[in-house]
Design goal:
By secondary structure, the protein is mainly alpha-helical. It is 61% helix and 11% strand. The chain has helices at 5-15, 22-28, 32-37, 47-68, 74-85, 87-96, 107-111, 118-136, 138-148, 153-160, 162-172, 212-230, and strands at 177-185, 192-199, 202-209.
Length: 231
Amino acid sequence: MTNNQPKIAELQKKIGYEFHKKELLKQALTHSSFANEQKINKFKNYERLEFLGDAVLELLSSKFFFETYPEMSEGEMTRLRSSMVCEPALAFCARDISLGDYILLGKGEEATGGRLRDSITSDVMEAVIGAIYLDGGIEHADQFIKKFILSDLENKQLFYDSKTILQEQVQKVGQTLSYELVEESGPEHDKLFTVEARIDGQTEGRGQGRNKKSAQQQAAYQVLLARKQEK
């Protein structure tokens, strides 16, 4: 395997956790495409750790919402948890710590923009949780989740649910909301989309993303932030 010790050390410092078994973190960062290229045992990619991390995240986020919001109903807690630990949400948190920079990818996956793909970075986020749980126990996993996933919940929820929240606000006052694709740039496998959020035909927000949906989400978020600052 490629020597990525400096990268491993850098990531550990960034997340504030020092692994006893460094190979667990390496495995959490290893995509199957890299493992196949390097002829590594097929079980040494991150998929098994992702499976474990997903379960740990569900348990600890459920406990967090149960304790933090004693008046919240089961249905409300389920919806809140779903929005906080879904693929786009985890990918958003992964970007906060530049997790994509540390993933070991095969050449083909690298060439097609895998490092920035939400499906991969969110999976690695869960794999890292699984690795921390195995290496340091549930307390350390809990600290990581609270610090990097369940922090700044108000703004994160505003981002994750931005399209729904904005649609509801606009409908309440009888306005119409539309999203217009204004620019596409980059090669076919790694495009960047620019979208404008328009209310009654007037542009109120602009967003960019690797797909149209994420660009729309970003545009809606910009509108909501601007409205929040005006209050």
